[in-house]
Amino acid sequence: MIKIKTPDEIRIMQTGGKMLADTVWETCAAVKPGMTEIEVDAMADKLIKEKGGEAGFKKVEGYHHATCISTNEVVVHGIPSPRVLEEGDIIGIDCGVFYQGFHTDMSETVRVGAQKSDEVEKFLKVGKQALEAGINQAKLGNHVETFLKLFRTS
Q: Given 24, 57, 82, 94, which is the most exposed site by the fewest CB atoms within 10 A?
């Protein structure tokens, strides 16, 4: 059962979400060739603490990281490792913040360094377009079937 949030709870979640978004964007902007996935994770963990939150993923029993890092062939929920990031790698950073009793979670995928590839750029762009299309359909009364029908006709 989903509990309807009060206006105060929504404000708390907005604050936690802002902490999270700032953390993820700052972490993504700092990623560069030569860093390890562990260093990326440590950066996110430090930023979360500095902003007044807790690393939400560390609340999962047995998990000791602030992020899940998925580099290149790793699809999702990769565990940060000593892997060294190279120019042109694609890295997904999934992160969560726990703030005043509420969890927020987001991820972003970025290119490491400045190397460009039309194929990779198209892949990242199409992924963002699909996300936006899904968000635009997330309205009261819509169901997954509504979303699927939209894409079957286009």
A: 82
Question: Distance (Å, rounded) from C-alpha 71 to C-alpha 2?
Answer: 34
Give me the amino acid identity at 24. V
Q: Which amino acid is at 66?
A: A
Per-residue confidence (pLDDT) for residue 85, from 0 to 100: 98
Contact 2, 82 (CB under 8 A): no
According to DSSP, the residues that pair with 94 across neighbouring strands are 68, 107
Residue 78's Cβ-side half-sphere holds a number of Cα atoms within 13 Å equal to 22
Which CA distances in Å does 146 have to 19, 42, 154?
33, 41, 13
Model pLDDT for residues 79-100, shown as the tens digit of each residue: 999 999 999 999 999 999 999 9
Spatial separation of the C-alpha atoms in residues 20 and 97, rounded to whole Å: 6
Give the integer Cα–Cα distance in Å for 110 and 151. Answer: 26
